UniProtKB/TrEMBL annotation:
Compartments where found: Periplasm
Domain of life: Bacteria
Species, as recorded: Rhizobium mesoamericanum STM3625
Family according to the record: Belongs to the bacterial solute-binding protein 1 family.
Principal localisation: periplasm
Keywords of this entry: Periplasm, Signal
Name of the protein: Sugar ABC transporter
Length: 436
């Protein structure tokens, strides 16, 4: 073993005081660099304005936390879904990643790939947990374990081109029922206008229609019974009726030509370019149509209106029942402790307020509500505030196996490739298989 005292003497004989000081500085710098922690943050956001807002938050955090680097990593929506399961099992697993919640998140927690956040969020009298809307925590909790840090809540609704509606003589305020909606589609077609921008290529955008119709026809009681294996399951008459109504919409050929191959960004572009009058989408659709439009500007904000998915005559569901996301940030089991500290910072009231002002989200952090200033986002926030039942996306809530069939069936029914009864039977069979 090399003698420590001899080494010191050798160093003193070879270097001047100045060079020794320089060497010490280099050693300290090297030690600091070795101690640096990189937090890998995986997301699927494409809006440059949103990314800039996140980058600003990350930069501020890094400035006050020397030695911590926040590395933002991106995967496109479909690639994210396809690659994430493998990525989580690899040495390149992210430390935190976007989650839609529901059955997929529950499954990820059950497999042991995620960090159970319960203890961290309940520490210090639950200060961290109490900083969020209680519904957001409850929606991300499974079997008493908190699986993700809440990020935002959202609801799916219709967005429309006011000028196109006016040209066709359609009054959005008068669309109260599903029959009213179909009448509006017919009017738009008669005026030579494509009624709806659809993203059938990715399938899940079409499942919004089927899901909402199930909610409006059957209400929470029917859907909860189906997903809990009770009664007639997904073969319930109300669910079959929802498929029949979706088929009725499909027969009107309401979507843009080639919609069956269109991605969601392409559908947003169709709407943003003024080539379709409506789109059923997320609360941030107005911002994302701009990003995906041909000129990068899209429709003028003043030309975009919004209305809730209409009621169904005789249905058990209410128009105040909402479908949408409860999104969070999941943390992988081997993530460094700094990940949780950064997440608490990212989602605190101050930062959520700034993100809300930028039109990025409807905040879940208590005290950030005043940040929702965008008129369309404010409407979505108001709708959520008065929601009588907020249901997570069906394809997320039911888990990946059943959710995939829901998406496939929705597209098959609306395109006339499958009957509503065959569709519900396929979903029921997938559900039963998933329970084995």
């Amino acid at each position: 073993m090399f003698d420590h005292m001899k080494a010191k003497a050798l160093l003193r004989s070879r270097f001047t005081a100045r060079s020794a000081a320089t060497g010490l500085a280099l050693l300290i710098a090297a030690g600091s660099a070795a101690a640096d922690t990189t937090v890998k943050w995986l997301h699927l956001e494409i809006d440059p304005n949103y990314l800039a807002a996140w980058k600003k938050i990350a930069d501020k955090y890094e400035a006050t936390h020397p030695g911590v680097k926040i590395q933002m990593q991106f995967l496109e929506n479909e690639a994210f879904k396809a690659k994430l399961p493998t990525l989580l099992q690899s040495n390149d697993a992210p430390d935190l990643f976007f989650s839609w919640g529901g059955g997929v998140l529950k499954q990820q927690l059950a497999t042991g790939t995620l960090m159970d956040l319960t203890e961290a969020m309940k520490a210090k009298d639950g200060a961290w947990q109490k900083s969020y809307n209680p519904a957001s925590i409850n929606g991300l909790t499974f079997d008493g374990k908190i699986a993700a840090v809440p990020y935002k809540m959202g609801t799916v609704s219709f967005f429309y081109n006011k000028q196109m509606f006016a040209k066709a003589g359609v009054d959005a305020a008068s669309i109260k029922s599903w029959d009213d909606y179909l009448a509006a589609v017919r009017k738009l077609k008669a005026a030579g206008i494509v009624p709806i921008a659809g993203g059938g290529g990715e399938k899940w955008p079409i499942h919004f229609y089927w899901s909402y119709l199930v909610m409006r026809d059957g209400g929470q009681k029917v859907f909860d019974a189906a997903k809990n294996g009770q009664g007639e399951g997904f073969n319930d008459p109300a669910i079959i009726k929802a498929g029949e109504q979706l088929a009725e919409l499909g027969k009107l050929e309401p979507f843009q030509p080639g919609f069956l191959g269109a991605t969601w960004p392409q559908a947003l572009g169709v709407f943003g370019d003024g080539k379709a009058a409506m789109i059923l989408g997320f609360e941030n659709t107005a911002a994302n149509q701009r990003t995906n439009s041909g000129d990068g500007k899209g429709l003028d904000p003043d030309n975009i209106g919004r209305f809730a998915f209409p009621a169904v005559s005789g249905g058990a569901g209410a128009v105040t029942d909402t479908l949408g996301g409860l999104n969070g940030w999941a943390v992988t089991k081997k993530a460094p402790p700094e990940t949780l500290d950064f997440l608490a910072y990212l989602t605190n009231a101050e930062n959520e307020r700034e993100m809300a002002k930028a039109g990025m989200l409807i905040p879940v952090a208590i005290g950030a509500e005043d940040g929702v200033t965008n008129p369309l986002m404010h409407q979505a926030a108001e709708q959520l505030a008065h929601s009588t039942w907020h249901q997570n996306f069906f394809d997320q809530d039911l888990g990946p196996s059943v959710g995939r069939v829901v998406n496939d069936v929705s597209v098959a029914i609306v395109s006339g490739q499958m009957s509503p009864t065959d569709g519900t039977q396929q979903i029921q069979e997938a559900f039963e298989q998933d329970q084995l």
